[in-house]
Amino acid sequence: MSAPIIRSLAELRALTRAWRQAGESIGVVPTMGALHEGHLSLVRAAKQGCDRVIVTLFVNPRQFNNPEDFAKYPRTELADAAILGPLAVDALFVPDAAEVYPAGHSTVVSVGDVSQPLEGAHRPGHFDGVATVVTLLFNMTQADRAYFGEKDWQQLQVVKRLVADLNMPIEIVPCPSVRDADGLALSSRNQRLSRKARAQAAALPNALFDAATAMAEGAYEPEVLAAARDTLAAAGFGEVEYLARCDSESLGPPIPGKPSRLLAAVWLDGVRLIDNVAVG
Ligand SMILES: Nc1ncnc2c1ncn2[C@@H]1O[C@H](COP(=O)(O)OP(=O)(O)OP(=O)(O)O)[C@@H](O)[C@H]1O
Ligand SMILES: CC(C)(CO)[C@@H](O)C(=O)[O-]
Ligand code: BAL
């Protein structure tokens, strides 16, 4: 059986009110659909941690800085509802744009410093769109816990900052990146890779893991980063938008004694891939 699809906020509210009155906890897994094992790992964590689980599916127009990317984003609602069936989620919330942004909607939520570099610099307005829709989804679902993937590391840090700064009564639960057998992080956008490019794509995680190991062993960072760029170019990758070691939490420059992370956004075969790994 497929997951029960709920489209209106009124219907969702009726459910969440009943669950709250029964003293049940609510978990939310926000997604843009085209579900894969990465998303399902979040759903499984939510099922373990909460009495009730809502998966949201909304391709949020306000976080796309590139109209072509928005137009091409995969939309597979029926398959998504079917794949969630065996996990027995309580609701698949699929609002339309007018339910999320009714006429007259004019509030934008903007998170500070952590949203500025990397994705923020290369996708102007992206994190304002994410922070705004995540705030709306948290309010709409009344969730106690929300599950986010480490694959979108900067997004996770932005959402943590948002929740801390606005004292939102919700716990953010990070979930590790799920990777294919060759190491490529699962992503809806991987579907757009040609067969040849898909075979080349594992060079990205390999280069990141190798570089992170070298850095942890004390190798000279500029040389390590230059070697990683050479490896990617040799593997057929195009533009490297960023490849940088950052403080894991603030995404600013690394801070001695604090965890750091290596993050990248790279083009391959007309597809923009992102990934990140811990250093040390
Ligand atoms: N491989 C993965 N492992 C763990 N979590 C993931 C993975 N891929 C996506 N997620 C998480 O699922 C949630 C929804 O992400 P989203 O719907 O954008 O999927 P996606 O595959 O990342 O798509 P795309 O990268 O093309 O936008 C986010 O919290 C994201 O971090
Ligand atoms: C969190 C999110 C569902 C908000 O639209 C989106 O950015 C995503 O899929 O990671
Ligand atoms: N997976 C993060 C959402 C986005 O790329 O727009």
UniProtKB/TrEMBL annotation:
Positions that bind beta-alanine: 63
Keywords assigned by UniProt, alphabetized: ATP-binding, Cytoplasm, Ligase, Nucleotide-binding, Pantothenate biosynthesis
Subcellular location(s) per record: Cytoplasm
Enzyme Commission code(s) on record: 6.3.2.1
EC top class, as a word: ligase
One Gene Ontology biological process: pantothenate biosynthetic process
Active site, per annotation: 39
GO MF annotation terms: ATP binding; pantoate-beta-alanine ligase activity
GO cellular component: cytosol
Pathway involvement of the protein, from the record: Cofactor biosynthesis; (R)-pantothenate biosynthesis; (R)-pantothenate from (R)-pantoate and beta-alanine: step 1/1
Chief location category: cytoplasm
Residues that coordinate or bind ATP: 32-39, 149-152, 178, 186-189
Ligand binding ((R)-pantoate): 63, 155
Gene3D superfamilies: HUPs, Pantoate-beta-alanine ligase, C-terminal domain
Keyword Cytoplasm attached: yes
Subunit structure: Homodimer.
Additional information: The reaction proceeds by a bi uni uni bi ping pong mechanism.
Family listed: Belongs to the pantothenate synthetase family.
NCBIfam families the record matches: cyt_tran_rel (TIGR00125), panC (TIGR00018)
The name this protein goes by in its record: Pantothenate synthetase
Native source organism of the sequence: Paracoccus sulfuroxidans
Gene it is expressed from: panC
